[in-house]
Design goal:
Shape: globular
Radius of gyration: 15 Å
Strand order of the largest sheet: 1-3-2
Low-confidence stretches: 15-21
Helix content: 55-70%
Number of strands: 3
Structural class: mainly alpha
Mean pLDDT: 86
Distance between the termini: 40 Å
Order of helices and strands: HHHEHHHHHEEHH
Number of helices: 10
Amino acid sequence: MASAIQIAVCVALKRCMNRLIEPEIVQNDAIAAVVLWAFVNEYCTLKPEGVSLLWLVPILPIVFHNDTVESIYNRNYDGGMLLALAQDRTLVSGLQGRMESMTAQTLSALNVALAAKLIEIDESGRNVVSLRRTPPFTYGLNIKPLIATAERLGYWFGSSSDDMIASSLRIRF
């Protein structure tokens, strides 16, 4: 039986599936929660111990950046992110500022994902793990590139060192 939060997430996503308008997506905590889940889920396939809470901060600013999504959502998992960055270094331009301005939304999305039981924080309180391996529902064609981008980021973050990620994305915490 679906919880009230899972139903709310599903309703919010279905509303945006047919008409994808950037402000609706960027301000939609339900879609952001599923994006975070997709990232964590893919990361956990490589590192089951989970992803540091800190690494969730750049995900929404990357996934909600149209040029970045168009550049990486359909690339190969291995090497795709680094190739995209090598081809267009402007993809990370302004990422630090977007991270800082979207931190509150990231935390709101994290709360929704936790409440919907898509992810959980481990006992140490430092890592996030996925609670499910399959998507919580079917996505529309407009949402799929966002999810695909988040999955590729999860794979890339999970298969790279923290220093390499921070250096490649030109970010600091």
